Structure formats: structure tokens, C-alpha cells
Amino acid sequence: MSTTAPPKDITIVGGGIIGCSTAYYLTRHPVYSPTTHRITLLEASSNSAGGRTADSIQDPATLADPTTASKKNLAHDGIAGGASGKAGGLLALWAFPQNIVPLSFKLHDELAKEHGGDKRWGYRRCWASQVDCKARLPPGFGGKSGDGAADPVSAMGDGASKGLHKDHKKDSKALKRLGAPDDLDWLDTKESLGGYENMGTPDNTAQVHPELFTRSMAQLAEEKGVKIVTGARVTAINKSADGKSVESVTYEKDGQEATHQPTTDCIVAAGPWTRRLLPEVPVTAARAHSVVIQTPKPVSAYALFTAIALPTGFPTPTPQKARGTAAAQTPLKKQQVVEPEIYARPDGTAYACGPTDNVVELPATTADVEVDVARCDDIVYQVGGISDELGRDGKVLARQACYLPQGGPFIGEVGGTRGLVVAAGHTCWGIQNAPGTGKLVSEIVLEGMARSAKLGGCDPARVL
Ligand SMILES: Cc1cc2nc3c(=O)[nH]c(=O)nc-3n(C[C@H](O)[C@H](O)[C@H](O)COP(=O)(O)OP(=O)(O)OC[C@H]3O[C@@H](n4cnc5c(N)ncnc54)[C@H](O)[C@@H]3O)c2cc1C
User: Fold this and answer.
1) Would 63 disulfide with which of 91, 118, 347, 432, CB 3.0-4.6 Å?
2) Residue of 410, 426, 427, 433 to test ligand 1 pocket, by largest number of atoms within 8 Å of CB
């Protein structure tokens, strides 16, 4: 590999985890030089508050230790405003697609070691498990559930909060019988747990706080020369007259149109918005809701893929096609199974997400994402029905929504146009696969080809 490279003007579209990781790895590539390479990252949103209810905590960094909190860079509010700031953050060697997963899992580990990721973005090894549970009724939903489980509130009586907690004290015998580990002590094993299966161990599973990771990638890239512009929504990628190469990028900022010229290389990392710039790349979008709950004390490091049976009388989950419905408050007439995912985090919180929906079309930017509070409440009720730490004793810090990019991942040149690269459509493993994607894109742009892993099915050529 040559140690010098021709001058390049590289524009990255999108300040999610893929765009920011790409910016980071471009600046760490052996041929990168801030004097010959101008790198600009354009992010459409200028704040990250969109997609969260007004009463939600807006800066998760404040929950972690004070040194982490100080990492917040106000100038870059808008970075990680979409799925990259509202995902679970699970990393796994057993994720997909397998051609890039091992590279990216390894890079996550290296990044954490190099930059203190344990403190800075909550990196740690963890367990992943599948649990079958039966929910208890939440407060205010009847004295008895349809299948005979006692209503915890009716059963409580005055000052019984402690007693109830004792009543639900995790029974290590029951855990063992089910094959569940002793330290999964924040799940109600006595009444709720029906089955446990291990999916991942700390050898092959880890986690990050995705918003803090993404912001850190942005900051670390900026320190090496990347210019970050937020509130800049790209409206067109302009090509040469013969259509064979990229020439410039047009964007809107503060109501004005501007052109970023020249642009020799344009990397489209616009997540679920990618198709609006590259209609030929089949990335689709689905909305997903999630909540962040502060637990009375940090809970042990598990990611739980649940199947929770809701008894009759439980608040009815919002129907798939309903918009902002009050149906969540109506008691269920017959049992229903739901599958929220729960991720314990080292900052004293747990994150939980629900199913996707297509009720509200993808808006213009992350700042305009509509949150359906009823869908967030569904998740709160459901996870609270199997854990007092998440329910009765927990405090909901954030109710939020974002759009999951689907269809890919697509990583590579977009047919026939020199300098036009896509990195998008990462499905439910975009946090896991971001460093690998960033590294591969840096190689494609600065060396002409991906070297660290085979693009395989990620190569857009397979669909274009
Ligand atoms: C509920 C949920 C849980 C998840 N959990 C996990 C998990 O545990 N582990 C995991 O690996 N993955 C997880 N994911 C998936 C992961 O969040 C995504 O794959 C990843 O965040 C996608 O990153 P991105 O940068 O491509 O997209 P985004 O985060 O959507 O970022 C795209 C950015 O591009 C900007 N943009 C769009 N259009 C333009 C434009 N025209 N001009 C300028 N900027 C533009 C947007 O404003 C946005 O900031 C989860 C996703 C969801 C929804």
C-alpha cells in the first residue's frame, strides 16, 4: 500500500453511528493526512431532542460518571439523534452478517481499550439470554389476573412495599432449576420466570451506550481534522456531466441552500433516509419505541430477549396499526404474548424496546420523529410486570422513538459513479457493525477496495 494518497474532498452524509465511525476510521487510516484530505460530515438535525418526549432526560451522559458527562459536546447536538442514539447497544459475535461481524466486534474491543470506552461509552462484556415469563398485573389493573396471579398492589397493603419486594425476592433455587444464573436477581423468578436459555456469554457478547459511543466517534474524528456541520440536510449529490463521478453536494442549512464543492467522494450514511438521496439502494424504515428506566441500584449485565405472557386484565398493548391510541389503558380480554428486549446498562439504568410499526411515515429529520407515548407505556407496563426493579421501584427517564434502517447493510460503491459510496441499511445490528463498516469504507475511499473483510452480500452491486 502506498503511504501517500491523492488529495480528496470527502463528504459524509449523516451523523449517526455509521457516519461518525466512518469519519473516525478515515482519520485513522495510514494514508490519511489533514493537509491532503478534507473531510466534512453533514448532519441534517441540529438537536438530538427529537424522538423523545419533553419530560425525558435529554443528555444520557449526565447519568454516567462526571468525566463521561463532560464529554458532551454542545456544538454537536444533532449527532446520534436517530436510531444510533436510541438503540439498545448490544454487540455480539453471533450477530449478522457474518462476513463483517468478527471484524467489527474486535474493533469495538480495541476502541474501548484505546479510548477508555468503559467509562466513556459504557463498554462492557455481558450475557445475553432468552427468557419466557408471565407478567404480573400493574397497579390499578384489578385485584386478580385472569389466570389467578395476585395483583401486587392489592396484595401490598400499607407500607408493604418492602414486604412485597421480599415476597418477590429472587429464589435462587428456582433460578437454578430453570438453568438461570444466580446474579439475574432483578427478574421476578418466583411468579414470572417460566424458562431460561443462554444465548451469549461475555466471551462473545458485549454492549455499549450507543449515543455516547456515536458522540465519542464524532469527537475523536473531529480532533483529527473532520469538520462537523449539524443542521445541514443534504438535498442532492451532484455528478459530472457524464455521470461518472461525484462533483459536489447540495444541502440546506438555516433555510439557505449551499453547495459543498468540490466533493471527490460522497459517503451516504443516512440510515433510513438513504433512499431519499439514493433511490436505487433499497433501504427501508420502520419506527420503534423504547424507554430508559433508572433502577434502584445498577442491575447485573444481561441483555434479555423476552417472551412475556400478559394475563387477562393487563393493559392492552397498542394495536399494530393504531396511532396514539388510549387502548393501552383497556384491560386485555384474553392472554397475549409480547417480546420486549431489555438491556441492563452500567450507568444505573435499563433500556427496553418494543416492536416496530409503520403507522407514521419517516419524517424529514430525526428532530421530527413522532413519539407515541402509549407505545412507550406498553413497554413500561410489560417489563415492570416481570421485574420490580424496572417497574414498581424504577423511574422512567426517557420515552423515545426512532426509525430502524432495514434491507442491508449496504457497504460499497454505488454502481458506475466514481466516489459515490453507500454505508446504510444496517438493520438491528448497526451498533455492532459500525466500526467494521467505518473501517471498510475508509479502505474503499482511500485505497480503492475493502481489505479488512470481504464485502460479500453487503456489496451494493448485488442489488444495483
Ligand atoms: C429499537 C432499536 C434497538 C436497536 N438495538 C440495537 C442493538 O442492540 N445493537 C445493534 O447493533 N443495533 C441495534 N439497533 C440498530 C441500530 O440502531 C441501527 O442499525 C444504527 O443506529 C443505524 O445507524 P445509521 O448511522 O445508519 O442511521 P441513523 O442513526 O438513523 O443515522 C442516520 C443519520 O443521517 C442523518 N441524515 C439523514 N438524511 C440526511 C441528509 N439528507 N442530510 C444529512 N443528514 C442526513 C439523520 O439525521 C441521522 O442522524 C437498534 C435499532 C433500534 C431501532
Assistant:
1) 347
2) 426
**How many Å apart are CA 190 and CA 175, to the nearest integer?**
9
Q: Which CATH architecture has domain 8-124+206-283+407-462?
A: 3-Layer(bba) Sandwich (3.50)
Instruction: Give the mutation target among 11, 12, 18, 121 for probing the ligand 1 site: most ligand atoms within 8 A of CB.
Output: 18
Please state, in angstroms and as integers, the Cα–Cα distance from residue 156 to each residue in 143, 147, 150, 166, 188, following that order: 11, 19, 10, 11, 16
Distance CA 317, CA 354 (A): 10
Is there an atom of ligand 1 within 6 Å of 281 CB?
no
Q: Contact at 8 Å (CB) between 294 and 347?
A: no
Task: Delimit the CATH 3.50.50.60 region(s) of the chain.
Answer: 8-124+206-283+407-462
Rounded distance, CA 203 to CA 4, Å? 39
Q: What does the pLDDT read at residue 189? A: 77
The fold for domain 127-201+285-405 equals: D-Amino Acid Oxidase; Chain A, domain 2 (3.30.9)
Q: Is the CB of 291 under 6 A from ligand 1?
A: no
How far, in Å, from the CA of 410 to the mean position of ligand 1?
14
All 3 cell numbers of residue 382? 410489560
User: What are the average pLDDT values for consecutive 10-residue runs of the chain, which has 464 residues?
Assistant: 75 98 98 96 91 88 65 75 97 97 98 94 95 91 48 30 35 65 88 88 97 94 96 96 95 95 96 97 97 95 96 92 71 94 96 96 95 95 96 96 97 93 97 98 97 96 84
Is any atom of ligand 1 closer than 6 Å to the C-beta of 14? yes
Whose Cα sits closest to atom 26 in ligand 1? 271
